[in-house]
Write a structure and sequence with these properties.
Layout lengths: L1 E7 L15 E10 L10 E4 L2 E3 L10 E3 L2 E4 L5 H10 L42 H10 L7 H8 L12 H11 L27 E2 L35 H14 L10 E2 L3 E3 L1
Parallel strand pairs: 7-8
Antiparallel strand pairs: 1-2, 3-6, 4-5, 6-9
């Protein structure tokens, strides 16, 4: 049996901030072998449902998030290696270019061998959105939505929403300034109140709808400068540290296309309750 995958098209983040459904190029389809299931015994933690005010939109924008289970740590090199061994179509030499650009798993020695310098328990990186989604599908899970990820990641060790804490935001921004954290082992940062680690301090992470939210000067607290309409420079006009950190995440997501493979970007999976 074979499955057909539709290609997600990247969306420029210089447009006005609004919810835009993830776009697909319905004219381009590629037939792929069916995924072979992969056993996944990674520890998951429950995130209770609730509501939060996201970075995008106006102050009174409230998003309701249903409860879900989330991987405690990002997917590691070891776990992804097991996946590609069982699903050859996702090996470096066999993956189709439309699903992953040329630097896909470029830091591995070959299709099924990690380089000596790579820690098997470090997060897998140089992974496209398509590859991350395929892994999640094979394990019976899914990529988190932006709202699920942001909702879980706004917690610190004691508080479900720590975004008002200066120290919390400074710690996140401090990580954004550190180079080469992607090679570190998972589960080395403190777990937040939900029992989830490494949401900050290790790698950027793919989300299911990574290019659904646009940035502009209309984002929360109405940063009015025109520079806020463009990726990267948006944080220049941020009025507080929470805005600054969120600008960086949303600008990064908005710059991606689904076949991009970034050396400091990985992923983790979720399950709905």
């Amino acid at each position: 049996m074979k499955t057909t995958i539709l290609l997600a098209a990247g969306i420029c983040c210089s447009l006005s901030c609004k919810r835009v459904p993830l776009q697909y190029d319905t004219h381009t389809t590629v037939t792929q072998p069916a995924l072979v299931p992969v056993a996944d015994t990674v520890k998951m933690a429950e995130v209770a449902g609730g509501a939060y005010t996201p970075f995008f939109g106006k102050k009174d924008t409230t998003i309701v998030v249903r409860g879900f289970m989330m991987d405690v740590v990002p997917v590691t090199n070891r776990r992804f290696l097991e996946f590609v061994k069982r699903n050859p179509q996702w090996r470096r030499s066999q993956v189709k270019h439309i699903y992953a650009e040329s630097n896909y798993l470029v830091n591995w020695m070959n299709d099924t061998t990690l380089s000596p310098a790579i820690d098997p328990e470090a997060p897998v990186t140089n992974i496209s959105w398509f590859a991350a989604k395929a892994y999640c599908d094979a394990t019976g899970k899914s990529l988190p939505t932006v709202d699920q990820w942001e909702y879980a990641a706004m917690a610190d060790e004691k508080t479900k929403d720590a975004r008002y804490k200066t120290a919390y935001n400074r710690e996140i921004l401090g990580w954004y300034e550190k180079p080469n954290t992607a090679g570190n082992r998972v589960d080395q940062t403190p777990e937040n109140v939900w029992g989830i680690a490494d949401l900050h301090g290790l790698v950027w992470e793919w989300t299911a709808d990574f290019n659904e939210v646009m940035l502009s000067g209309e984002s929360r607290k109405d940063v009015s400068s025109d520079v806020a309409k463009f990726c990267g420079s948006g944080s220049v006009g941020a009025t507080d540290l929470m805005n600054y950190a969120a600008f960086m995440r949303f600008a990064f997501r908005g710059s991606l296309k689904a076949n991009y493979c970034v050396q400091n970007q990985g992923f983790r999976a979720v399950k709905n309750l």
